Amino acid sequence: MKSKILPNWNINDGPIRIHSTDDLGAILKARRKKQKMTQSDLAALAGTGVRYIVDLENGKPTARIGPALKLIEWLGLEVTIQEKRIDQGAFRLH
């Protein structure tokens, strides 16, 4: 499943909800390109291989989280986690 977030989202629009690895990959790729960096540039900065960058940008669901968090930081982004808002009457797991 490819991301439906981009090209409609702009970093200046504020936080965005990520629903899939495809969404995350699309956002990271767009941010890297906005900063005029190649995949090789980003890999060197983050201390990872180009193959990892390619996999992450393509939404590979088995990509390791540790290097992804480093890449997010190098791209000037951050990850925030909050409790999901549940509509009244919706099923909620405990």
Report on the architecture of this protein.
By secondary structure, the chain is an all-alpha fold. It contains 4 helices and no strands. The chain has helices at residues 21-34, 39-46, 50-57, 65-74. It is globular and about 45 Å long. The mean pLDDT is 85. Residues 28-82 form the HTH cro/C1-type domain. This is DNA-binding protein. One of its GO terms (molecular function) is DNA binding. It comes from Leptospirillum ferriphilum YSK.
Low-confidence stretches: none
* CATH architecture name of the domain at 17-74: Orthogonal Bundle
Strand content: under 5%
Report mean pLDDT, rounded to a whole number.
85
The N- to C-terminal Cα distance equals 29 Å
Under CATH, the topology of the domain at 17-74 is which? 434 Repressor (Amino-terminal Domain)
The secondary-structure class comes to: mainly alpha
Helical run tally: 4
Shape: globular
In helices, the fraction of residues equals 40-55%
GO molecular function: DNA binding
Protein name: DNA-binding protein
Domain HTH cro/C1-type: 28-82
Keywords: DNA-binding
Question: How would you summarize the topology of this molecule?
Answer:
Layout: H1 21-34, H2 39-46, H3 50-57, H4 65-74
Helix pairs in contact: 2-3, 2-4
